[in-house]
């Protein structure tokens, strides 16, 4: 099968997956109840207000009618209006998405790289002090709540040492896009970035390590040693490349969940990202916001899967030749 | 002899004098009722300057005041607008309205406003703007405050300074419920918007340029989910605020907020903190706490349409079975008081309606046992639990929402007490459910009992929504024709004396009939710093991010104020706060020491340096790893 047909098939199935996800979420979420229900406990709200609000957001029509309208709107680029924010879903998400992407993409990339490099070294030095130290640290950090780690960092660096701010992404008064603004942003950015990288590294270093240990036991490594190749060449050409393969899936898919991303980190550092948005949309039964977020999430997961598949095919000749 | 002519003259004179007297009485009856409003408190600024930073616990989702419903949204919009009247420590004080009078039949309100007020863009605030805002709120049913304005027929501007509001029906609480919460919106900004978008304004978020009001602060920047910053309106008509700048930052987590407070980054936190952290706060000499009352009544709601909760005596038995002191002292750690059985709180704006002769229920399980025995709920099979009068097994459910740990524990305490009734306990199952689920069960009337916190309105007519059989928020489904007719009179009666009598009578009946068991009112804690700013105005029913504080708080040192305003009547800043022995409110003496001005934001050079160091550090780690790889 040629690569173009392969690619086409994947794309079509990806597209259909996204449609299926949106449809399922659309109907499921409407079973959970009424976004306007809580307003009823507020005696200042008149019954007419609730009726008008419901019809303003299209809830006075049948579910199927709403669904058809929604799908039509999605294809024309209109994501609907959020009940809680009283404005277009697209605006709400776009206000926050740049911050999340700016924080998560570099931190994921860096932590992947460090985890990969460190994991290979550790896999080689199995049983040594570095290995045991990293294992211990890794287990400790994976067991502690994310929240706790973030607050410890905050307490240590912001309160005790006073080096970093306690909340937000920028301080009042900074003007975009001056140099001062970027400096201020970086200053706010550092702590959440470090927390995410630290946690990311120690979560994934174990995977790489185990993968490397498996590979070191393989025949071709023994043959390479027998051939007399230097350890450096073996490490870079044989072990590293083979260790990368399972990692691509795991570490590559981390990019897919950016929008869902670092909700706890965002809460502790009061960083204005989309993670908190998702949580609030669920809790407040803000259907349209939730649908908008799920749309973006499903597209990014499906896209990430596609890319990972392609990378796999590119990197592993065995997969290419089997087609 | 009196001739016929004389008789005619006398008769005519008599008729004329009668008609004159009748005429006079009609004119007297037409004399309007002045609505009594006090003057607001005024303070003088000794020092000007400072950038006050306050932390708030949750973010506003929209800056469109017409749809703003959450308390945070209302809070961030508060500093930029004026109102006709406002509540201060439980009483109504004047603001833009100089005078309000009501026609004797209660159908026409005439409001005279202060002259010379200007919006932030220089245009004058006239009666047109007031009339415009009222008309919008009554025309568009999606507006948050539509419910309190729906009795308005129309509002007209008679001249630059007078507004006349015509009512469809008498609404005795109109001024307190509606005019005290209405921000006066500029007609020249919003009328074109409504013309252009119509109902679309419900989904419109205004830009900073459109957030123009006449208030003491002008919005300068809004970063979603981060902060809103304001600067002082130098030309504010009541005199400029003492501080130069105000920033409200959204701090997502209470523990982070307290860390910021300790560090001196924010001066106060307007969010929820638990009583356990109070000793730690008070241990810091620069921090103090302000304790204030919430008028929400947290009650054990009973479904009056479901047996046996439709039996008045059964409900009373339940009221005796609650250990009120345990809830207040253990759960609330002393920050609260038992709820009034007439449901009207004894403090704040409700104080004038409160019936102080009510007998409060006390924890008395033997009375519960006595009443249950009388009703026929006895333990016939000796299993320790009482059965229904017909002998069948009896149990009921209590639904506390999971998000409020206090209510969850309260439900458990109640269930425990019910189990301990002498002569056999009542089986109560505590079902902890997520709020949205709990809420749909409560409003559906499908469950036995629940724990809910409900807010009363400003004017006593709030009783209609909660206890009238047609009330829109009568979740207990309580129905009593006598109470219904008293409430109907209460809503349409204008005379304050008569209204008070009606309110007292209604509370008496409610205390007797006990449609729900009123458990507690809560106190909340607002921590604040005492070292940088002076004259924190502590009102008894609100935290420190309130209108008066923002206007009059001043830095301890700064530019001395040049304009010496004549001091107006001093008003006490706080009602006595009921503090039990477990609390300690530290009042630091106002010693003016030479303290540094609030720290300015770090200069670009400083953070640039740290940013550069961070980047270099990361680069160093990467390089080190590369080197390590190469070595082996």
Ranges of chain A where pLDDT stays below 50 over 5 or more residues in a row are none
User: How is the biggest beta sheet of chain A arranged?
Assistant: 2 strands, antiparallel
Principal-axes geometry of chain A comes out as globular
Derived from helix and strand composition plus strand pairing, the structural class of chain B reads alpha+beta
Percent helix of chain B, as a range, is 25-40%
Shape descriptor of chain B: flat
Oligomer: heterodimer
Number of strands of chain B: 23
The overall average pLDDT of chain A, rounded, is 86
Portion of residues in beta strands of chain A equals under 5%
Q: What integer is the average pLDDT of chain B?
A: 86
Note poorly predicted spans of chain B: 564-605
Written overview of the protein:
Chain A has helices at 3-31, 47-56, 63-75, 89-124, 129-143, 146-160, 179-216, 219-227, 231-253, 263-269, 275-283, 287-315, 317-321, and strands spanning 81-82, 87-88. Chain A has 323 residues and is mainly alpha-helical. The longest helix of chain A has 38 residues, at 179-216. The radius of gyration of chain A is 24 Å and the shape is globular. Chain B is α+β, with helices and mostly antiparallel strands and 632 residues long. Helices cover 32% and strands 19% of the residues of chain B. Chain B is built from 18 helices and 23 strands. In chain B, strands 14, 15, 16, 17, 18, 19 and 20 form a seven-stranded mixed sheet that branches. In chain B, strands 1-6-7-9-8 form a five-stranded antiparallel sheet, covered by helices on one side. In chain B, α15 (481-492) packs antiparallel against α16. Chain B is flat and about 125 Å long. At the A-B interface, α2, β2, α4, α6 and α7 of A face α4, β12, α7, α13 and α14 of B.
